[in-house]
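Extended Data, panel c. Modelled sequence:
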Amino acid sequence: MKSKSVFKSVCVFVGLGFLLTIVWLMIFSMTITPDDAEMTVEPFSGASVTFGFACALIANFIYQYNSAKSLEQRIYSNTSSLESIKIRNRDLIDKANRLIDKHQKNEKESYIDIAKASYTKKEERHEKNTKDRLKTYSDEDVLVTSSQEFGNFINDFPELSNNQNVKILLDEIINSENYLSNSKIELNRCIESYNSLIHQFPLVLLRKPLKFTDKEFYREEVQITDEMLGI
């Protein structure tokens, strides 16, 4: 990709150089060339070509430098925004888990009250069936990490799925996940454009003195545990 960027930038530079060469020929023909001269008079041989490509080099460099600085600022801004969205997403997930924890405790307390009030075998069997049916009676507490997991949990309980505030919390988690995903994509796009730009001619010639270095793409850090692999 870097070699393609250099080739493309060289082609742009050459094209701009020829265009500015024509411009300088017109300038010399209107300024220092006598009216009776058959050819354009230049200050020295090849002046139009020299000035044309020199101006193309300077203009191209200034444009690339400003673009690189602008992309660099966008990368910093997007990185900061991404971290803010991640914090908000974690806060919303934490709020969802606290809601689940409270709901589980209430369900378990209700089950304990029922169990204490039960004396007959028939009632004990009924309580056992009720315990097996309700997920919140399991020994392991539910811990969600995404909107999908939270949505699956509340769908099992009408008192939660019909609660308007719980629906709002679920929507907020979904929105934060969408913002997070879009921010990651936008950040990597900026990094890709930046890395490509600093390898274009003529900026590539001065990128080290100007401290333009390749930036690493954003990658999600996923921790693979033994439990996830089933070992």
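Confidence is low (pLDDT under 50) at residues 111-116, 133-139. This feature is highlighted in the accompanying rendering.
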